[in-house]
Amino acid sequence: MNKPIIMFDMDGTLLDLAFDDLIWNHKLPERHALTHKCSLEQSRATLYEFYQEHKHTLSWYSSNYWTSKVGVDVLKLQYEFQDKIAPRQGCFELLDHLKQQGYRCWLMTNADLASLNLKLENVNLRHYFEVIVSSEEIGYSKEFIEFWQIVQEKYPFDPAQTFLIDDTAPVLQGAGKFGIENLITILQPSTLNAPRNALELNYPAIQNLTELEPYLDQYQKEFNAKTA
């Protein structure tokens, strides 16, 4: 039986985005205000401007870039609060199921290598994945079609027989332009925020990660019908 490759995003998909929310929206503004002796409001305004300027670029995901930009050791800050790194609901149940069923799982993350390693030190995911890619290695973030082209050159795969599960719409759009056909998003990337409205999302959405299983079963039925 020909099984699709399952590609997973990390932050907001397999891991609770609450950790990143805590770091970037709370702890970094606090540390930035302390470092530069300004008010928390001023710090938030400054960082918000920086964030908007670099959103969806490689710099956005780079600990080194932000450390030099804002004068706070961002990676050290992440290590200070690493006990807050946690898997999302159904993460291990789904990955165990996929492994038992013989699916090939790949991890595709925009996290830089330092943040990726920190997270994998805290949540034991590495052994589930045949391929692990950080956009830092590729030179483009996942929002860009070039990311997927370079990944395919390095690790050949058929986009028509691939699933991508990711919480970020621009990433799913980039993957869709490249040709990945089976795109699924996440209802509640961060437990610090309310679930999103499924009707406002452009892709099928799941909450508990085990909800992916019926999509895979349906794909398999359709694939078998085509090749029968």
From TrEMBL:
Membrane-spanning parts: none
InterPro entries: HAD-like_hydrolase_sf (IPR050155), HAD-like_sf (IPR036412), HAD-SF_hydro_IA (IPR006439), HAD_2 (IPR041492), HAD_sf (IPR023214)
GO annotation, cellular component aspect: cytosol
Record-linked Pfam families: HAD_2
A GO biological process held by the record: DNA repair
SUPFAM superfamilies for this protein: HAD-like (SSF56784)
GO molecular function: phosphoglycolate phosphatase activity
The organism's place on the tree of life at top rank: Bacteria
NCBIfam families for the chain: HAD-SF-IA-v3
Protein name listed in UniProt: Haloacid dehalogenase
